[in-house]
Design goal:
The complex is a heterodimer of chains A (140) and B (243). Chain A has a two-stranded antiparallel sheet. Chain A starts with a helix and ends with a strand. Helix content of chain A is 71%, strand content 5%. Chain A is elongated, with a radius of gyration of 17 Å. Chain A has 140 residues and is mainly alpha-helical. Chain A has one domain: VKOR domain (de novo design (two linked rop proteins), Up-down Bundle), CATH 1.20.1440. With 243 residues, chain B is an alpha+beta fold. Helix content of chain B is 47%, strand content 13%. Chain B has a 6-stranded mixed sheet. In chain B, a hairpin with a 5-residue loop joins strand 6 and strand 7. Chain B is globular and about 75 Å long. The N terminus of chain B is likely disordered. Chains A and B meet through helix 1, strand 1, helix 4, helix 5 and strand 3 of A and strand 1, helix 1 and helix 8 of B.
Amino acid sequence: MSDRSLRVVLAVLCLAGAAVAAFVLAARWRGTELACSTGGCETVQNSSYAELLGAPVAALGLVGYLLIAATTLSTGAFGRVAGAALALGAVLFSAYLLVVQLAIIDAVCDWCLANDAIATLVALAALLRLHREPLTPVDA
Amino acid sequence: MPPARREAPKQPPLGRLSLAFGGAVLLAGALIAVSFVGGGAADEGDAAPVESSIPLGRDALFIGIPQDGISLGRPDAPVTLVEYADLQCPYCADWSRDALPAVVEEYVRGGRVRLVFRGLAFLGPDSDKALRAALAAGRQDHLWDVVHALFLHQGAENSGWVSDELLQSLGRTGFDADRMLAETASKSVENELAAAQRASEVAGVGGTPFFQAGKTGDGLAPLQLGALDAASIRAELDSLLAG
């Protein structure tokens, strides 16, 4: 897969992740209930772990996805490294939150699981991008 | 002749990989530390459950029905009924005493309806104290037991009837009243208070009890009950279940 294709895939995945985060954030602000097959979404969203320094974790996720998407605009090394660092950091933090849901809150949120899946795919795409160099002109 | 293009070597320089992993670990480490300290501080009561001093015994109305935070009943029940109430509101107490048992037995226990409690505290300090206790009990999935018990023991408005002794007496096996009292000012309770307030504004709650209902996962619509009795709510719930 070319670097261009990887950037497109990464950007699309980031938009999907941002959409999930924005949906959860909107529900929180409007006070509406999340559709939830596990029944644990409200418990998770109302837990103290749903905020970080007073800001909703969903807002952090939204900003994170947009930042990673922004790195796809760059074809240089900085964009690749920054994108991979952000994406891997997001996966590690998502893994921590999953452990918190299972071990501390004792409830699992569908939307968090959807985010976890997207974050994992974003990290894989970012790593693939880091693994590849862009097409560079060379002397014939 | 234009320059040829080629794919450069597929192995990234080790430095870049190290930078990415290093950055990721630093970023995640910082986030986890902040989250853990914040969450842990709010959840201090989790650490040492203490035996409740005056167990009353579990409210038989809710035995065998799953509770989850502010919800009562199966999460996949086809219909959700949301109740907005102030724990000092006398009409809410009437509803809880006269109509709720029928709703629970006929609709909730069989998994057809899920109830959600949205507590408001606009009648004064005893409303606030009672609601905080109920929401804190929700962290142990016992909100409905506390709400029902407080309605049954409702006293004169802001007379101090929501005493620590009354709240302590709500303790029971599997329900840690000390932990409940310790968590009445937790971030989780504050969040739920704010969420209920926002939801009430969106729903246009003008008085309590106020009800919304709808297919679970779909939108909720306000219910205009002819009377605060089981017959009126039955008609609404049956209509939703049939639709």
